[in-house]
C-alpha cells in the first residue's frame, strides 16, 4: 500500500464519517466560486453533511447554487461573517478551501485553532481522492498537471487537442474550463466514462492545499513575479508551484531557468529540463506566433509522447503531429488574432495578460510581423506602492526597444501610468489616456500597425474577469471596422 493511498484513505474516512445519518460531523466548503460549487455538488452526491460558506449575506449568493442541491437535507448555508467568530466549529472534519482564499484568512485561522485535526484540502485534492479504488489501486486515467506563471492554458489546450486528434479520450480542466470535481461526480454517477487522460491546469493557489493528487507527469513552464497580493516574494510564489513536482510519480519537466525548490529528497519523479527534450517534430509548423508558444509546444509534445508511451498507446507519425500544430488556433484571450482589414495590420486580443512578463512575452511574439506596435495597457493595480511604480517605470522604459510607437492607457491604472510617463523622456512614443475602452475606440484611427491589447494588469477595475474584458475588446474591434 502506497503512502499516498494511505493518506488518501485517511481523508476519505474523514469525509465518509460525515455521511452517517447520525453523524454530527460536516464538510465545510469556503468560497462559492466555480471550484467551490463543483466541490459542493460532489459532496452532496456522496451524501455528506455539507456546510457552504461565502462572504456576504446568504441571500446575495444563494442563487449561485443549483436549485436541486438547495433542497438537500444535508446542506446548510452560512455567510462567512456569521461564522467568523463562532466557537462551535469542532465538528468540521474537512475544510475545502477555494483557491482565491488564503490559508491565513481569519476564518480559517479561527477554525483550525478550535479544531487542529481538521483536514484542509482544495477542490482539486477532493477530486484526486477518487483516483484510487478502495483496494489502493489507481484508476485507469493517466494524470498530467501543468503549472507556470504564463502559458498554462495554451499548453494544456494543445496537449488535449493532441490526445483528441489521436482518438484518445481526455478530460481537460482544473484552473481552466470545467472544475475537476465535475468530472469525478459524473464518473462516479455513471454519467461519464473513465477517460484515458486527465489534463489539469494547476495554479499556485490550487497547489497550496493539494498534497495527495497522484500526477503521472507534470510540466513547470516558467516563473516570474505575480500575485504580489498573496506572495511576499518570488521565492514563496515559486515554492507554491514546486508542489507540482512533489506530486508527480513518473517524470517532471522544468524550465531551463532555475526555480525555487522545495523538497528535493525522496522525490518520486525523474526531473528533466525542457532543453533536454529530443524531438524530430519541427515547431515551425506551429500556427500561433512567438518563441514562448514554441516553448509551450515543446512541453506539450513532451507530455504527450511520454504519457502515450506510459499507457502503451501508439504514437502518431511526426507528420501528423506537425499537422496538429499547424491547425491549433491557440486559446481565446491569449495573443488571439482578431479579424481586421488587411490594410490595417494584425490585431491581437491578449486580455489574459495580468502581469508585466505576460505583456513582455506578447510584445516579443508580435515582433515577427515587423510593424510598429500600438499597445493598450491598463487595469486594476494590485498594490500601489514604490515597488509597483518602480516595476512600471522599468517596463515602460523598454517599450521603444520593442517597437512600440503608440501607447493607449485605460482603466484605474491609466492615470498612474500617465504620471509616471510624464517624468520619463521617451522620444517617439505617443501616449493617450482614456477611462474606458469604448472611449478609446471613439477616437481610434486605423493605421498599418500591430494593435495589441495586452493590459498587464488584472481586469477587476472594470470587468468581472479577463474573459469579459477580452470579449468586450473583440466586440469593439468588430464594431469599429464594420463601421469604417
Structure commentary:
- With 484 residues, this protein is of the alpha/beta class.
- It has three domains: 3-121, NAD(P)-binding Rossmann-like Domain (Rossmann fold); 128-327, 3-Layer(aba) Sandwich (UDP-N-acetylmuramoyl-L-alanine:D-glutamate ligase), CATH 3.40.1190; 336-482, Mur ligase, C-terminal domain (Protein-Tyrosine Phosphatase, Chain A), CATH 3.90.190.
- 37% of the residues lie in helices and 18% in strands.
- The chain is built from 18 helices and 17 strands.
- The strands form three sheets. The chain has a six-stranded parallel beta sheet, sandwiched between helices. Strands 12-13-17-14-15-16 form a six-stranded mixed beta sheet, sandwiched between helices. It has a five-stranded parallel beta sheet with strand order 3-2-1-4-5.
- β7 (170-174), α9 and β8 form a beta-alpha-beta unit.
- α2 runs parallel beside α9 (180-188), α8 crosses α12 and α17 (437-443) packs parallel to α18.
- The termini are far apart.
- The mean pLDDT is 92.
* CATH class category of the largest domain: Alpha Beta
Main sheet makeup: 6 strands, parallel
Integer-rounded radius of gyration: 24 Å
Task: Strand order, main sheet: write it out.
Answer: 7-8-6-9-10-11
Task: Summarize the helices and strands and which ones pair or pack.
Layout: H1 3-16, E1 26-30, H2 34-45, E2 50-54, H3 58-61, H4 67-70, E3 75-79, H5 80-83, E4 92-97, H6 106-114, E5 119-121, H7 123-128, E6 142-147, H8 152-165, E7 170-174, H9 180-188, E8 197-201, H10 204-208, E9 215-220, H11 234-246, E10 248-254, E11 270-273, H12 291-311, H13 318-327, E12 336-338, E13 347-349, H14 356-365, E14 373-378, H15 386-397, E15 404-410, H16 414-422, E16 430-433, H17 437-443, E17 450-456, H18 466-482
Parallel strand pairs: 1-2, 1-4, 2-3, 4-5, 6-8, 6-9, 7-8, 9-10, 10-11, 13-17, 14-15, 14-17, 15-16
Antiparallel strand pairs: 12-13
Helix pairs in contact: 2-9, 8-12, 17-18
Amino acid at each position: 500500500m502506497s503512502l499516498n493511498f494511505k493518506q488518501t484513505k485517511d481523508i476519505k474516512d474523514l469525509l465518509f464519517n460525515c455521511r452517517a445519518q447520525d453523524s454530527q460531523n460536516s464538510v465545510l466548503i469556503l468560497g462559492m466560486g466555480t471550484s467551490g460549487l463543483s466541490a459542493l455538488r460532489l459532496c452532496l452526491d456522496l451524501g455528506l453533511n455539507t456546510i457552504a460558506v461565502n462572504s456576504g449575506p446568504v441571500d446575495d449568493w444563494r442563487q449561485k447554487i443549483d436549485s436541486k442541491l438547495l433542497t438537500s437535507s444535508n446542506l446548510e448555508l452560512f455567510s462567512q461573517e456569521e461564522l467568523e467568530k463562532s466557537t462551535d466549529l469542532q465538528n468540521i472534519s474537512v475544510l475545502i478551501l477555494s483557491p482565491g482564499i488564503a490559508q491565513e484568512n481569519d476564518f480559517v485561522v479561527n477554525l483550525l485553532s478550535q479544531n487542529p485535526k481538521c483536514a484542509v484540502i482544495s477542490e482539486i485534492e477532493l477530486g484526486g481522492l477518487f483516483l484510487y479504488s478502495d483496494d489502493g489501486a489507481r484508476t485507469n486515467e493517466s494524470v498530467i498537471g501543468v503549472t507556470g506563471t504564463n502559458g498554462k492554458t495554451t499548453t494544456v489546450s494543445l496537449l488535449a487537442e493532441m490526445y483528441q486528434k489521436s482518438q484518445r479520450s481526455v478530460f481537460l480542466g482544473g484552473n481552466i474550463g470545467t472544475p475537476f470535481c465535475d468530472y469525478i461526480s459524473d464518473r462516479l454517477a455513471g454519467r461519464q466514462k473513465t477517460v484515458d487522460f486527465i489534463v489539469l491546469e494547476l495554479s499556485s493557489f490550487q497547489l497550496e492545499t493539494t498534497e495527495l493528487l497522484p500526477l503521472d507527469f507534470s510540466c513547470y513552464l516558467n516563473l516570474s513575479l505575480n500575485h504580489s497580493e498573496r506572495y511576499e516574494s518570488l521565492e514563496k510564489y515559486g515554492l507554491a508551484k514546486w508542489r507540482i513536482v512533489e506530486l508527480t510519480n513518473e517524470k517532471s519537466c522544468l524550465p531551463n531557468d532555475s526555480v525555487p525548490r522545495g523538497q528535493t529528497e525522496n522525490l518520486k519523479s525523474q526531473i528533466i529540463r525542457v532543453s533536454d527534450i529530443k524531438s524530430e517534430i519541427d515547431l515551425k509548423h506551429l500556427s500561433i506566433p512567438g518563441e514562448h508558444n514554441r516553448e509551450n509546444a515543446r512541453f506539450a509534445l513532451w507530455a504527450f509522447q511520454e504519457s502515450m508511451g506510459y499507457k502503451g498507446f501508439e504514437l502518431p507519425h511526426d507528420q501528423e503531429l506537425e499537422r496538429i500544430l499547424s491547425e491549433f488556433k491557440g486559446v481565446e484571450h491569449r495573443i488571439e488574432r482578431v479579424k481586421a482589414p488587411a490594410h490595417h495590420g494584425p490585431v491581437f486580443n491578449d486580455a489574459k495578460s495580468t502581469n508585466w512578463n505576460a505583456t513582455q512575452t506578447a510584445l516579443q511574439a508580435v515582433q515577427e510581423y515587423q510593424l510598429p506596435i500600438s499597445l493598450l495597457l491598463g487595469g486594476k493595480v494590485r498594490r500601489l506602492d514604490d515597488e509597483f511604480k518602480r516595476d512600471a517605470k522599468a517596463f515602460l522604459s523598454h517599450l521603444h526597444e520593442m517597437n512600440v510607437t503608440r501607447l493607449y492607457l485605460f482603466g484605474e491604472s491609466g492615470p498612474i501610468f500617465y504620471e509616471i510617463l510624464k517624468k520619463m523622456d521617451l522620444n517617439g512614443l505617443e501616449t493617450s489616456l482614456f477611462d474606458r475602452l469604448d472611449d478609446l475606440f471613439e477616437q481610434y484611427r486605423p493605421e498599418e500597425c500591430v494593435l495589441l491589447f495586452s493590459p498587464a494588469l488584472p481586469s477587476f477595475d472594470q470587468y468581472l474577469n479577463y474573459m469579459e474584458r477580452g470579449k468586450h475588446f473583440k466586440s469593439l474591434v468588430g464594431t469599429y471596422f464594420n463601421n469604417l
